[in-house]
Specification:
Distance between the termini: 24 Å
Number of helices: 6
Number of strands: 0
Strand content: under 5%
Helix content: 55-70%
Oligomer: single chain
Length: 123
């Protein structure tokens, strides 16, 4: 999907595409499909950048995915909202880490660790 196409999509449609891409990431992780994961990660990043570039930084729309049934969707939404909703995003990451549902719990825990030691600074 091109950036031009993303730019023409409404925010709710971007949320649906984000959810599909991150569910696909989860499936790729479980199936050891690195190339597929990387393609979907790029799409997810492009969606986040499109939202960030919209008036008022529309990444806050990702908060609507914090109740999504798939853990990978919640994880990626939380990580990408740290800059715009740090308290809510951190709570989501803490909740994911506490589940011990791997690999997402490990990813969330590492993200929190990097936040706390200053290695990661959300933009």
């Amino acid at each position: 999907m091109s950036k031009q196409n993303l730019g023409q999509m409404a925010t709710p449609d971007l949320m649906a595409l984000f959810a599909r891409a991150t569910v696909g990431q989860d499936e790729a992780l479980l199936g050891s499909q690195r190339a597929r994961f990387n393609r979907l990660f790029k799409l997810m990043s492009d969606i986040s950048n499109e939202l960030k570039g919209r008036e008022g930084d529309q990444r806050v729309a990702l908060l609507s995915l914090f109740d999504y049934p798939n853990m990978q969707v919640r994880l990626q939404a939380a990580k990408l909202t740290l800059a715009v909703a740090p308290l809510e995003a951190r709570q989501q990451l803490e909740a994911i880490a506490a589940t011990k549902w791997f690999p997402q719990a490990g990813d969330a825990g590492m993200c929190l660790s990097f936040l706390d030691d200053g290695t990661f600074k959300p933009e």
